Amino acid sequence: MRLRYLTLIAVAFFSAFPLYYSVVVASRHNSALAQVPPPLVPGGNFFANVARVFDTVPFGLALVNSVIVAGSISLAVMFFSTLAGFAFAKLKFRGRNAMLVITVATMMVPAQLGIIPLYMLMVKLEWTGTTYALIVPALVNAFGVFFMTQYLSRALPTELLEAGRVDGCSTWGLFWHVVLPAARPAAAVLGMLTFMSAWNDYFWPLVVLNPDNPTVQVALSTLASGYVNDYVLGLAGTAIGTLPLVAVFALFGKQIIGGIMQGAVKG
Amino acid sequence: MSALPLAVTRRHRRSVRHTLDLRVSPYAYVAPFFLLFCAFGLFPLVYTAWVSLHEWTLLSDVQEFVGLGNYTTLLADGYFWNATFNTLSIGVLSTVPQLLLAVWLAHLLNRRLRFQTLFRISLLLPNVTSVVAVVVIFSQLFGRDFGMINWILSWFGVGNIDWAAGTASSHVALSVMIMWRWTGYNALIFLAAMQAVPRELYEAATLDGAGGFKQLRSITIPMIRPTIIFVVIVSTIGAMQIIAEPMLFGQSSGGGGGVATGGPDRQFQTLALFVYEQGFANSTFDFGYASAASWLMFLAVVVVAGINFLITRRVKGGIV
Questions:
Q1: Angle between helices A115-125 and B287-319 (to 10 degrees)
Q2: ipTM of this model?
Q3: pLDDT at position A267, please?
Q4: How far off is chain B from A261, nearest CA to CA, in Å?
Q5: CB contact under 8 A, B135 and A110
């Protein structure tokens, strides 16, 4: 029993330490990194380093872009996933099961392989360099649909829908007045998961955006890819660009983890 | 007399609208997903095959049909095979220890435990850290001269390792990053499956005097086999597509080389990174060649995932 706790504490330590250490480095001066032993507590240089981040890359613009992109993707995914989840979980129609199976199967498709035609498509649409290229393809995804289907088939009583029908609700009316309110807890978790993954998305934004109109992750990679290794600069950017999200996660972690584990079992 | 037909037609019209609503609404509600998937998921994948049969670059408007020419060139391209080797090597190094560790951690968490939530949150912290942040942080930790990992190793008399420079050492460093980011996530998925295993099985086993490890082997693992197969397949598909880690490691470890070469000697260029280099990072923007590489990569994903599926089924069957 004691061994179990010791192991778990060690694992928790290894999970958290690199994050802590990145803050330590981000709050130091580059010269401090050459010390032996390396510094283990934060220094007083954090805000000076952050100011340097804003001087080096358009970080303010990157933050605005990331908020817009991740925010609109999350709202759209919550809405469209609940809509499709309602149909799959509670409505009867021909081909329902086959379509649900196909939806789940698309999660296995290695999306990265289509990256070149996807880029060509964006060139045709004249969306390269704009946030449309990030938002539109991500408006709804298979995971979200599956996640909401699972939740609604479990948590939404069919009698409630039947009562709504008797009262003369159309299908859309049912969705709006009955399903949406009932779906709120799961949709909130889905929204947080989607926001985090959209915020952290790196490869596609890198391909399709320009360095002068970046998202946070693209700006961070610009910071990190200088030929002179300015780790302090890179980690200061990391600290303001990604750690707030980690902090939010730590606050809502319980609900988010519950969501991940629920979505996982049936998959 | 005259009011009746009016009421009937109104009722009729309402019932038509009602039937239409019942028939059409479900399809309309699932349509956004399927439309989006066709446009931005399926179409690009299929179109890749078409592009791969052409001499096709971003710079030229003329696309010449070359049949399987790109594929034969690829199969003779040493860089392609180098990338294939690196992908498999990093894939094995990162996935195998990761999944074993994840099963074990889930096993440890699958008990009444104080601070359960705290442990779970800390396990998932690395997963909500962005890949850029992970590589920047670990490039510093793996730094040759002032990195903390070399500093700790020096206590045991190990000299300063230039992690990014060697093939084996860079693969280890990248695998550590991947493991750090994904072990906790997979542990939670295993844990979710383990919680569905009936408690009585464990109680009976305890009465029979079976210890923790024995219970893990002969109860837990057989019972969560579907989840294990699922996680192995998903991890395989993910591992075959690794790109951001080697790309950023090449840039932030300061070893030189191109943006997408995976180190100056291509010592850690993966297949996906090779595709990116051909399509976007070198001056020819050779979409045809890159698309051919994409399709070979897709084949590799299918083959490796299939093999792993068979192995996972077989091995677990042997233990039971």
A1: 140
A2: 0.89
A3: 39
A4: 5
A5: no
